[in-house]
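Dear Dr. H.,

I hope your travels went smoothly. While you were away I took the liberty of generating a structure for the chain from your last submission, since the lab meeting agenda had it listed for discussion. I wanted you to have the full record in hand beforehand rather than looking at slides cold. The sequence, exactly as received, is reproduced here:
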Amino acid sequence: MVNSLVAKVKKSKGASKAVLAAVKALARANGAVQPKEAALKAAIAASTKARAERDALDRPLRRSLSVLKLRTRAAETEGASGLYAELFATEAAPKPQKEEPLPDAAPTPPAL
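The corresponding predicted structure, in token form, is as follows:
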């Protein structure tokens, strides 16, 4: 798109030197951007493919984990006490303790 714009402006008659200089700078900048754009498109394609592969594994993995949790709960009802908590309990991160502000120093009497 930029290349066609540059070509049209260069062909147009009556373009000032400032416009031609701007078009030349635009063409230079576009030349620097195009290789980076190609690399970015390749990275986006690889990322999209990786996400699709991850998502394909996600559903069966979640289903298997749900079945395991249900069977663990069932085993608890049959006497395996504490099994679910042992396998699936998570430890909560400790809450940060609030620091109490230090009491202000005793007020000084006004100077006379």
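Two observations you may find useful: Residues 15-85 form one domain. Residues 103 and 109 are 17 Å apart (CA to CA).

With kind regards,
E. W.
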